[in-house]
Amino acid sequence: MKNKKLRYTAIFLLLTATISGIIYSQAVKIKLAISSFDSLTESAEKQEAGKKASHIVEDGYNKLADFEIRKSDAINNYINKLALAQAGVGDLDSLKGIGKDLKIDYLTVGSVSIYGHYCEMDTRTVNINNWLIVHSTGISSFDLQSASEAVCRDANITLSAQDIKDKESLERACVSVFKFTGGNTAADDTGIGGVLAELLNSELGALRGLSVIERTYSRSLINEKMLEMAGVIENDTSDETFRIKGIDYKLQGSVNVFEGLIGVSYSLSSTINHKKIFSGYTEFASVKDLRHAAKYLAKIIESAINEKIGSVEIASDPAGANVEIDGITYNKKTPFVTSLESGTHLIKFSLNEFEDEIRADIKSKKINTIRAKLKSAMSSFKVTSKPANAEIEIDGKSKGKTPLDIAILKGKHKVILSLDGYESETREIALKAGKKTTLDIELKKEERKAAKNIGGIDFVYINGGSFMMGSPDDQGEKNEHPKRRVSLDGFYIGRYEVTQKQYRDIMGKNPSGFKGDNNPVEQVSWNNASEFCIKFSEKYNVQLRLPTEAEWEYACRAGNNTLYYWGNNFDQNYCWTYESSNSKTHPAGGKKPNAWGLYDMSGNVWEWCMDWFSEDYYVLALVSSERNPQGPSGGVERVLRGGSYYDDYTSARSAMRYNYSYNSYGNHIGFRVVIAASTKKPEKKPDESPAKSF
After folding, report:
1. Quick check: 74 and 64 in contact, CB under 8 A?
2. DSSP of 437-481, one letter per residue?
3. Which of 147, 436, 538, 659 is positioned for an S-S bond with 380, CB 3.0–4.6 A?
4. What is the rounded distance in angstroms from the CA atom of residue 329 to the CA atom of residue 326?
5. Residue 148: is its pLDDT beyond 90?
6. Quick check: is 13 in a domain?
7. Sign of CA dihedral 361, 362, 368, 373
C-alpha cells in the first residue's frame, strides 16, 4: 500500500511539472523590438537593404506566437538614440533601464552585406539591460527577401523564452568582437573587415560556451569611429573600459584581400592584464566563404577561452623548415602561427640535411613560442665489397660503385649491391646523425640458371643487374633522354619472338600476313598479345607477360652500352631491316644472337612492351623508382621496341622507342614474352574501339 502511494505521488509530481512547463511556455512571451539593421556594403546602402530587411523581419516576428513585438515607430526616440550611440555620439548606458517603460526586454539588431547577387544577413537578439546576446542567426542567401524569411523561420524554431532563460543562467566568460580593419586598399574598398566582424559577432553569439557582448554596445563604449578618424585606434584605452563593463576578452584582427585569396589575422587579448592570449591566421577563397570562415574562427575562439587550445608561434633557425606535429605534416614552413590542444606535443623540424625535434607543453590562454635550432642530420656511411666495383643503390637511387664513402641523412635505408656474375645483396641499415657506419659485403658468385622450354617456347634466364637506359644527349630521339641508371631483378625472356605456331597453339588462330610456322606472329595488337599471355599462363601454370620497357632494353643490350647491341656500326648479320629483308618477315633465329643468346632483338618485327608510352617519361623517371620500373601509370598508347623488316637501320638502335595504340596492329608488329614472379601479372585492357590496322 505504501509503495502504491509513492507511485501515485511520483506520477502527480511528473504531471504537475509537465503542465507547469506547458503553461510557462504558453504564457511567457518574448517582449522585443526590431532595430533598423545596418547596411555594411556600398551595394547594401544603395538598396537600403538594412531598413528593408528589418521591416520584413519585424512583420515576420509579429506573426509568431512566442513574440510580443513593439513596433519600431512606437519606440522611435529610443531607436534614434541607439543609432547615435552606434555612431559614437551618445552613451548606450543612458538607455539602460528604459526597457520597462518601453515594455520590451530584448532588442533585435542586425546587419546586411551585399556583394553582387550574394547576400549575408545577421541578426542578434540582445538583453536590453546588459547587451548580452541571447540568440543569433546568420544567413547566406542570393536575395534579401529569402534571407529575411529564413531569419524568421529560424527564430520560430530556436528562439523561445525557455531558451533565453537557460542561456542567461549560464556562468560564462564574456567576449566582445572589437574591430577587424582592412589590411590593404582592396579590403578597405569592399568593407570586408566590418562584414567579418558582424558575422563573427553572430557566430560567437550562437555558441553556448561564451557570453558575447553585442558590437553595437562595445562600439559605442569606445567611440570606434571617432578613434579611427583621430588615427589612434592602435593606442586605444578600450581594455579598461571593457573590463569595467564586465567584458573579459576582446577579439580583433585585420583582413587582406588579394586576387583569389582573402587572409585574416586575428588575436584575442585579456582586458584584465592586457596580454594577448591567442592569435592566428586563416585564408579563404572569396566573400562567399565568409560565413564558413566566421564559424571556424568562432569555434577556435570558444576553445581558446575555455582552455581547450593554445596559440603556438612556431619558428626555426634557419627559417623555412618543414614541420611535423604528432606525426602530421603541416603544409607550412617556419615561421608560422597555429593552434594546438592544450597538453604535450612532439614537434619535428627538417630543412634539407638539418633537423630538430621539441616536445612542447602547450598552455591555453597564452602565446606559446616554439623555436628550434636546427642541427645536422647527416651521418657518415662507408660501403665496401669483395670483389670491388659493385653497383650501389640506396633507396632506389644509384650512388656509384664500391668502395664508397658518403654523407647521408640519418634513418633507415635500403642498400642493394649488384655486380655482373654475382648475386645481388640487399641490406637494411639504420644510420644515426653524427655517427659513422661501415657496411662490408662479400658477394657470392651467381650461377646462371639454365634455359628452359615451356609450351614450346625457349626461355633464357637473364641475371638481375643494373645498366644505363636510354641514349646519350648527342644521340637518339628526345624521348630517349636523359640516360639514367636502372636496376632489375632477374627474369626469363623468350629466346625468340613468339612464332605463328606458338600463337596458334594457344589462341587457335593465326592472324599473320606473312605465313610461316617459324616466322614471328604479326598483325597482333597489344590486347591480343596480353590475351595470349593470360591463356598461356593458365594452361602452363606460369606467370607469363610482356616485358617491361626496362627489361626489354636490358636484355637487348646484353651488357653492352653501344648504339646497337653488337657495337656502334650497323651490321646486317644481326637483324632483318629494310636494307636486307626484301620487305617481309623471316623465320625466327635467322641472324646472329646477342651476347646473352637472344635472337632478333633488333629487326624482323616490332615487339610490344607492357608499359604505357609517355614522351617525357624518362625525365619524370629521374625522381621515381630506378629499380624494376613499370613505366607511367596510364596513357593512351603502349610502347614498341626493336624495329622491323619494314624500317631502316636507325630503328635497330637498342634505345629506340616507338608507340602505338593498344588496339592497333600491323604486319610489322609482334611480341616476345617473359616470366618474372617478382613483377605484376599479365594485364589486358578491354577493347574500347575497333582494332586498327596500320
Report:
1. no
2. EEEEEEPPBPPPPPPEEETTEEEEEE--EEEEES--TTSS-GGG-
3. 436
4. 8
5. yes
6. no
7. positive
CATH of the domain at 330: 2.60.40.1120
pLDDT of residue 96: 56
* pTM greater than 0.85 (yes/no): no
DSSP secondary structure of 194-237: HHHHHHHHHHHHT-TT-EEE-HHHHHHHHTHHHHHHHT-GGG--
Block residue for cell numbers 643490350: 557
Answer yes or no: are the C-beta atoms of 450 and 433 closer than 8 Å. no
Query: What pLDDT is stored for residue 252 in this prediction?
Result: 92
Nearest-Å Rg of the Cα atoms of the chain is 40
Measure the CA–CA gap between 596 and 607, rounded to whole angstroms: 18
User: Are 494 and 426 found together in one domain?
Assistant: no
140 - beta bridge partners? 120
Q: Are 372 and 495 within one domain?
A: no
At 488-515, the pLDDT tens digits run: 989 999 999 999 999 999 999 999 999 9
Distance CA 394, CA 520 (A): 41
Strand 211-213's sheet: what is its strand order? 211-213, 174-182, 249-258, 261-270, 276-284
Report residue 482 as a C-alpha cell: 636523359
Q: What is the pLDDT of residues 670-682, one digit of tens each?
A: 999 999 754 444 5
411: Cα separation from own chain's centroid: 26
Q: Provide the 10 A C-beta neighbour count for residue 638.
A: 27
- Cell digits of residue 612: 604505357
Question: 686: burial class by Cβ within 10 Å (0-12, 13-18, 19+)?
Answer: exposed
Residue 431 belongs to a domain: yes
Q: State how many domains the chain has.
A: 4
Task: Please name the residue that has the C-alpha cell 515576420.
Answer: 60
| Amino acid identity, position 325 | I
Tell me which of 169, 189, 207 is where a domain ends.
169
Residue type, 36: S
pLDDT at position 270 over 70: yes
Q: What is the DSSP string of 105-126?
A: SEEEEEEEEEETTEEEEEEEEE
Q: Which three cell numbers stand for residue 653?
A: 638502335
Cell numbers representing residue 404 in the block: 664508397
Dist CA 255 CA 265 (whole Å):
7
Backbone φ, ψ for residue 148 (5° rounding): -65, -40
Query: 393, 368 in Cβ contact below 8 A?
Result: no
Is residue 245 within 8 A of residue 130, CB to CB? The reply is no
pLDDT value, residue 227: 36
Please report, as a single letter, which amino acid is at residue 547: P
Distance CA 537, CA 516 (A): 24
Phi-psi region of 213 (alpha: psi -120 to 50; beta: other; left: phi over 0): beta
Whole-number Å distance between alpha carbons of 640 and 611: 9
Residues 591 and 651 in one domain: yes
State the chain's mean pLDDT as an integer.
85
